[in-house]
Design a protein that fits this description.
Belongs to the iron/ascorbate-dependent oxidoreductase family. GA2OX subfamily. By secondary structure, the chain is an alpha+beta fold. 23% of the residues lie in helices and 24% in strands. The relative contact order is 0.17. The protein binds gibberellin A4. Gibberellin A4 is lined by residues 89, 97-98, 100, 102, 110, 179, 181, 205, 207-208, 278, 313-314, 316, 318.
Length: 329
């Protein structure tokens, strides 16, 4: 008999929550088909740095195909999945997040978003035929990127800035440094006997990029931090997308939009599968407040390129305030 050792739970962050998790009803829901969406989008980015979008135009078929491929991948034996690792930063990772000692109850695949990417390292995993996975990935990424760009253009309109592609052109650029992430949070049944304790799936952090587009299955776990520091649980919705403002958009709007701190808690009974597109600028792009948004204000940030920010991010721990290093004192 082969006994597979379960890692000691002490390795992971267990949190005692005083309140039972209740879902927060106040998350902005933006209907992209409505003409008033641009002002609601601006308000949501100012108040929460987070919102949900409906009538998003991403075909359901693209979502379910990629989800099926993701589940197929995560169901493979660990030794097979590890052939696609370690995440350096692209590749398969298991429980360890980033290069600086962060851990979580999660396994994941980090992938580039350019369709020309060479999937050679994944070939053996997909029985020598990675085409199905790649097609599903490319269809999905193109559709969420399009939707992300539409949101960024509506935001530019809502802020009265021109041209309306000031943000979206960075994602559309052929050198855009965007990434894609598939996460699998396995259930942790022992949590049921740990009265009120929670296990961290993915620790609190903000996303460094411009915008993140997240879709998950119907399993709860995502929490966001409100301006007052309180954590609230986001009701899952597999038919909608959740959008995070990233640190770069916070800087480009000189702090008008706030990047949202978020985290994921493991579920005791159900697997959570999420797929996230992180829309980033080209490495050489200067990240600085747009002059038209400053109106005589000074920039709150020192000037830096996305390359410099990313380099600094990879030296940080997940929960660090990465923008702190770039704030003017
Ligand atoms: C957070 C957002 C994205 O998932 C990510 C993460 C990256 C990683 O997992 O490799 C980082 C993290 C994220 C921020 C700080 C660094 C880098 C782990 C970490 C400790 C892919 C990204 O771009 O930044």
């Amino acid at each position: 008999m082969v006994v597979v050792a379960k890692p000691a739970i002490e390795q992971f962050s267990v949190m005692k929550t005083c309140k039972p998790t209740t879902f927060f009803p106040g998350i902005p829901i933006i209907d992209l088909s409505k003409p008033d969406s641009k002002s609601l989008l601006v308000k949501a980015c100012e108040e929460f740095g987070f919102f949900k979008v409906i009538n998003h135009g991403v075909p359901t078929e693209f979502i379910s195909k990629l989800e099926t491929e993701a589940i197929k991948f995560f169901s493979l034996p660990l030794t097979e999945k590890e052939k696609a690792g370690p995440p350096d930063p692209i590749g398969y990772g298991n429980k360890s997040i980033g290069p600086n000692g962060d851990v979580g109850w999660v396994e994941y695949l980090l992938l580039p978003t350019n369709p020309e990417f060479n999937y050679q390292r994944f070939v053996s995993i997909f029985g020598g035929n990675p085409e199905r996975f790649c097609c599903a990935l490319n269809d999905y990424v193109s559709a969420v990127k399009k939707m992300g760009c539409e949101i960024l253009e509506l935001l530019a309109d809502g802020l009265d800035i021109q041209p309306r592609n000031v943000f979206s052109k960075l994602l559309m650029d052929e050198h855009s440094d965007s990434v894609f992430r598939l996460n699998h949070y396995p259930p942790y049944p022992e949590l049921q006997d740990m009265n009120g304790s929670n296990l961290i799936g993915f620790g609190e952090h903000t996303d460094p990029q411009i915008i993140s587009v997240l879709r998950s299955n119907n399993t709860s776990g995502l929490q966001i931090s409100l301006r007052d520091g309180n954590w609230i649980s986001v009701p899952p919705d597999q038919n909608s997308f959740f959008i995070n403002v990233g640190d770069s958009l916070q800087v480009m709007t000189n702090g008008k939009f706030k990047s949202v701190r978020h985290r994921v808690l493991a579920n005791s009974l159900k697997s959570r599968v999420s797929m996230i597109y992180f829309g980033g600028p080209p490495l050489s792009e200067l990240i600085a407040p747009l002059p038209s948004l400053m109106e005589g204000e000074d920039s709150l940030y020192k000037e830096f390129t996305w390359f410099e920010y990313k380099k600094s991010a990879y030296k940080s721990r997940l929960a660090d305030n990465r923008l702190g290093l770039f704030e003017k004192v």
